[in-house]
Please model this.
Amino acid sequence: MTLVSGLFAWLASLLWRQSRFLMLRLPARKAGAAAAIAGALGYTLIAGFAVPAQRTFWMVTVVALALWSGRIASPVRTLALALAVVLLFDPWAVLWAGFWLSFGAVALIFFAANETEPVLQQWLRVQWAITLGLAPAALFLFSQVSIVGPLANAVAIPVVSAIVTPLALIAAILPWDAPLAFAAWLMQWLLHFLEWCAALPAALWQQHVPPLWSALLALAGVLWLLAPRGVPWRATGLALMLPAVALPPPAPASGTAWITTLDVGQGLAVLVRTANHALLYDAGPAFGTEADSGERIIAPYLRATGIERLDSMVVSHNDSDHSGGAASVLENFEVATLLSSLGAGHPLLSLAASARPCAAGQAWTWDGVRFELLHPAGPDARAKKTNDLSCVLKVTAGERSMLLTGDIEAPAEAQLLQRDAGALRADVLLVPHHGSRTSSSEAFLAAVRPAAAVVPVGYRNRFRHPNAEVLERYQNAGIMVRRTDLEGAVMIYLQAGKFEIKSQRQEHPRYWHDAAH
Model:
């Protein structure tokens, strides 16, 4: 955008000087400033008016107005005025990661730049400052920092800014394909180079999201480290950055299970963690051919919590709202064992190191926590609906347990009751089939006798789940109901003698959330 606005200013000033009539009425410098604002505005609108584009537009505008009025705007004042205007027009911009990264990067450039140094040395200093300075924010926002970023930027920024963009603009004006063809060839070469950078060993540092206090401490360490010469003990800034990368992520104690029902919309994804193991029960829906909840929600959450591999993954049945994100999870994480009721030859089975069908009676223990599959059994393979083939998993920590039911309906519930009704007893129930009217029979609820139930459901979903009669049934049984559409992710903490329930909106409320939820 700076390049485009500067080009508009230069052309406007050049043409303005050719007319004595125009020069007598307005200086060419002011005409160029107005053209710079117009060019920046046009580019911003084409770019979708995103926060980084807004920031650059308002900075260009502030500088142009300063030139128009004859005042010299300092870099810090320019950035501050741009920040104020962005927040004036879009107060919620502070919720965008791009807001912090965009303004932070420019602030770091102003902080680290030294105009007395040679151009190359100054450029290297700025690259170092941006890479190091944005690392705490990148870890806190994305759980990762690019190590090859400086190398990639060293090539990509000059090529795109100084060559590709001008050629594309020339090709848009002149009826000549050669500049555009050369720009396209150059971009292909650049993409190959960037792919090579991304494939380098240790190209990316990934870890859990550090606590906010450690990220702020790391930011203070960065500023100390990048301080001008003469500031004492600058290297001590590295010590302030250590907690953000060295502190281990929180994890359950031995004999304790943390069970999180993620908010993936109209679908299901549940993460079960013990002291040293992790299991994913279902992987949410696909949102289309190019995106799914495994890539958009589950994988970022696993990285944020410090999980690098899954000891087991359960795909309860072959419905897209439960298996749609499974491929993305399997491609991004090592999964030791895949348990499912998928048919032979299903593509997901080939993505796991080991895959086997769910079967009643399978059980194992991790870190003092017992996992037991209750459904399906051999004869259940003749079920008329895939819903009734859902893998039903019971997780028990001490005397407390939770029953994960997938999409089972009344026929499967009857089979479970007939096979072993006593095994169904649990303190927390994952409501079958998102609370549809075909599930949660009175006999089933009487056998489970949960104190609480979690409904994994999408906000205002087209199926109108959960069904009003089903909710009333839970209410009449004295069961506390928690819903992902109203509370976000719901966390269950199972341990000997007690269990605890929390939700994302309860722990981290926004001011616009309904206080009742």
